[in-house]
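Contributing new records

If you add data, match the layout below exactly. Sequence lines come first and carry their own label; structure lines follow with theirs. Keep one chain per record. Anything else will be rejected by the validation script.
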Amino acid sequence: MYPLKKEHFFMNIYQNDGWLDVKKFVRIADKNKINFIFIIGARRTGKTYGIFNHFINDVFSKNESIVYMRRTVTQLESVMAEKKNPWIDVNVDSGHCFYFRSVKGEKNRIILEEELPDGNTEYRGEAFALTTMQNNRGFSGSEFTEGFYDEFIPEEMAKKMNGEEEAFLNAVETISSNRELKGKKPFRWWLASNSNTLDNPIINAFGLLPYLERMKKKGQEFALLPDAGIMIILINRSPISEKKETTALYKAINRKSKFASMALDNEFAYDDTSAVNSEDLRQYKLICTIANFGIYEHKSEAKLYVCEHISGSCKDNYEDTEHGRNQLRTFHSYIYNFIITNRINYQNMNCKFFIDRIFK
């Protein structure tokens, strides 16, 4: 794990009016050479609004362009509808007129434009769906300076995507191009989403799960990993969320529902943490390993424990490959019975997600 910069542990991430202080994030990112900014949290707390305002003030003002990304083609195409334009609130408040449109004669190309007061238009960037980026490997991102992957954590009902982690990393490689090799400033990515789940390929790709778990437990809303060029904002105490509690929707629905927990409290409502506990390894014996995970059996009770520490030795050691996972499923199929009967505990969510992906 990369070391966290402790001076920012309990930094205030909100403006005086309660919205996210994106300007502060930009200042800290510039000072510490941060290239990936993750903002995860409750709905309608100023994530997208703040990022778009930053683009207006700090990117478009320099005649630079951006890349906007959504997870699927359907999501991307929806932003071209006038009523679904994510720029609506910013347009109304700022007097600008930003919108997405398709380009006639260029299949699947969507661009961001601004209509100027004199009636002319200004090109502001490109828009892509993650699922189609493999069709744009020849695309050069050298003229772009920043990108925004909007809603990178899908809702529970969304279809899982094979190879999502690799697809995004390839997209980063394609869009970021060879800027740094040419002496240019690195491309900066903003990734924002509601707090649906921590079990996400992008979170996994950047190794953020241990940091997010620790931040959630401590009530920490800001973390800086300067060695990795990463900033994490985890919205826990939004003043806007507190105000929203009294609005019609949240007065009408069950306050303890998964939706309310996600939308107001930044709870990862679809993640079951009931089996995440710290256990005394002296009460267990190692039965097998896979990658850096040890699977243990209790010495006197019919229960299992999975952790990222391997103590002792065993004859069954599997690699973190498709073949290794198949071997674990075949030779230790009984683990599934422990899972469905709630007789297995995990050191942390990383252990749980790893085992769930194998057996579920």
